[in-house]
Design goal:
This protein has 210 residues and is of the alpha/beta class. 18% of the residues lie in helices and 27% in strands. Strands 5-6-9-10-12-11 form a six-stranded mixed beta sheet, with no helix packed on it. The protein has a five-stranded mixed beta sheet with strand order 4-3-2-1-13, with no helix packed on it. It has a two-stranded parallel sheet with strand order 7-8.
Length: 210
């Protein structure tokens, strides 16, 4: 299985290598205008057209903290030409994939909860999941911000060792940690942010063989 993963597009629509499954881990909307009507038009127009043109057997996506329209109008997200997950699991090509938008609270963005509250969110992840896609990273893995602090979820890193079949955990959110690759047991943990700290394209989609 060729699984490509990317996050934090922030309005860019890059070339994606051919793959069996493409994972898009949130923050797809442009960063220059967070108005709901603008995000709606962009998603239904350029983004939907880009999705239709991809050479991917399946596309699975979630929202991120900049995707306010995903919080206010989840039906719009489900109507796009992809499989949209919101604390949900789907089986595709023999892979069980779970997706979740949430990150620990930082300022006033979408899909944020206190880290202790996220414990209940992570309990929705099936124990037999093969691929986990979250917008934010787990604590200590691909989460080192420019100010030198780790910004990942401590409750998420406590959950991961209990996912006995986990092969890949893809996430973004912390742009400056893009490209980080770690392992936790047999699982690959990867920050697949597309843009860097200054919101410039920096990292192509990463392809994993699962």
């Amino acid at each position: 299985m060729r699984v490509a993963a990317i996050s934090d597009l922030h309005g860019f629509l890059p070339e994606i290598p051919g793959c069996d499954v493409l994972l898009i881990a949130g923050d797809v909307c442009p960063v220059d205008d967070h108005a709901l009507d603008y995000q709606r038009r962009w998603l239904e127009g350029p983004f939907a057209g880009w999705l239709r043109g991809l050479e991917a057997g399946a596309v699975v996506g979630i929202g991120g903290n900049h995707d306010f329209i995903a919080q206010s109008d989840p039906d719009l997200m489900r109507g796009l030409p992809w499989t949209y997950l919101f604390d949900e699991t789907v089986d595709i090509e023999g892979l069980r994939i779970h997706g979740s938008h949430w990150t620990p609270t930082f300022m006033d963005w979408a899909f944020m909860l206190g880290d202790a509250e996220l414990t209940a969110v992570w309990e929705l992840i099936p124990s037999d999941v093969d691929v986990l896609m979250t917008h934010g990273p787990p604590f200590g893995f691909g989460d080192l911000a420019v100010h030198g602090l780790h910004c990942g979820s401590e409750t998420l890193i406590e959950k991961l060792p209990r996912l006995g079949r986990l092969k890949l955990h893809a996430f973004g959110h912390i742009h400056e940690a893009y490209g980080a690759r770690d392992t936790l047991g047999p699982a690959i943990l990867a920050n697949v942010s597309y843009v860097d700290f200054d919101y410039r394209p920096a990292q192509p989609a990463t392809v994993f063989a699962l």
